[in-house]
Design a protein that fits this description.
Elements lengths: L7 H4 L16 E2 L4 E8 L5 E8 L4 E7 L3 E12 L5 E3 L3 E4 L4 E18 L2 E4 L5 E5 L1 H15 L9
Antiparallel strand pairs: 1-2, 2-3, 3-8, 4-8, 4-9, 5-6, 5-7, 5-8, 9-10
The structure holds fe (ii) ion.
Amino acid sequence: MEDPLGLRPLKEITLTERIVDPEDVPWVPYTDTIWVKPLRLNRKTGQWTNITKVVGGGQINRHYHVNGVVGFVLEGSWYYVEKDWVARKGMMVWEPPGDIHTLMSGEEGTVTLFQLEGALLYVDEDDQVVGFDDVLNHTRVYHDYCRSQGTRPLDLDY
Ligand SMILES: [Fe+2]
């Protein structure tokens, strides 16, 4: 068979796909009301993907996104205190860079897939930065938690 576009040699330099079963990843506790299952922690690009679980009425404190975020609601619902809509099971939300919001889970709690890039900066009511989350501190928290449980973290750095 001919290979007029020269695709065959590219197979040798193509990376291997990655399959991550969330069942193989623990719920890593973040606060009394938030748990996170990391699925991707790419330290080269700063991209990180996780499933976030928030109990009913729990909140993710007010924060600023340096880059855009995509969320897909797997269970329950949540909303932003600063907005007038509710993200329910099966809905996708895109948050633009620079968006500032406070996530509140619905009464039934929520489980949501988030795809992030770069940092989110926690800010107070005056928009002063008081903390941050990014791929590096999420990697550290995941690794520390696995160590505390006597388990080996998966390599999610892809
Ligand atoms: Fe956010």
